[in-house]
What we know:
By secondary structure, the protein is mainly beta. Helix content is 6%, strand content 54%. β3 and β4 (96-112) form a beta hairpin. InterPro entries: PorV. Keywords: Signal.
Amino acid sequence: MKKLVSLLFILGFSVSQAQTIRKYSNEFMNIGVDARAFGMANAMVAHTADVNSGYWNPAGLLKIEDSQGALMHASYFANIAKYDYAGFAKKIDDRSAWGASIIRFGVDDILNTTELIDSNGNIDYNRISLFSTADYGFTFSYARKLPIQGFQYGVNAKVIRRIIGDFANSWGFGFDVGLQFERDNWQFGLMVRDITTTYNIWNIDEEEFQKIKDAQTQNPLQNQDLPETSEITLPKAQLGMAKKFEFHNEMSLLASANLNMQFQQTNDLISSSFVSIDPAIGFEGGYNDLAFLRVGFGNFQKIQQLDGSNKTGFQPNFGVGFQYRGISVDYALTDLGNQSAALYSNVFSLKVDLSIFR
């Protein structure tokens, strides 16, 4: 199936407008991490409290007792794209903590057919080469308690690295800010991503780009202009609340909800020229803090049908998890029943309390 991936499609990366604010810039950084979170439709901002807080809300890093590590793997688009994540976090003292993580979203072994036809017009399959396109996100997190009881904040510094074979590459930089507050067993959270906007600068190899233009024998008028080299990612905000209910027989239920906001008009369930809001809700049932069953509903979108009407699509997710002596193994199946425009995915993750090795 990879043979169907067009080189020209891959080069349709987010650099088509200079100094342009794009709706879908650096979208791989918005997918999420941790199978537990996917099972709860990513409604994590208020109650996140482990190594994965570096992604969801860095303020949650303060709830780590010592140090933790995490790994995650998922496949997308019929296993064409690989999505991987690794994170580490450590408590500094009673009032502060730090963490670091890396995300990779990549497609490997893409066929480069720009030199398939030689100068005499003959097809030579030996002239086909392979290349990869990969997006990397490096995040460095710091969290600290505020002097006001119940409040804590966190900050992320992000470095974005995007590579498209030998054709183009970019660097980007940005910041996130998170806040958590807890009172009477109610938890509240606010996460603002790309609060200063995230700025990406692309470097395009003009010689390689010329090969693409020369290879366009079917439609030589298409994509003739060199793509521009900068893009800006607008801020996004997530507001959440959560509460955990304890029952008899060592049963528990965690209920959480998010309002995911973009400051532009989109196809979200609530949409205006100022802000668009996509709600998400998640539940986690637990037994003896050992086994967990999760369900979540999110990604509510207005999907235009062939007849021009709009249909509201949503993404139901399901997950299970097991935790024993500091080791957590989680699984999630996203878009259960294919209810949204997104494809379903299987997500696996592992979290380890590193203090157990001491």
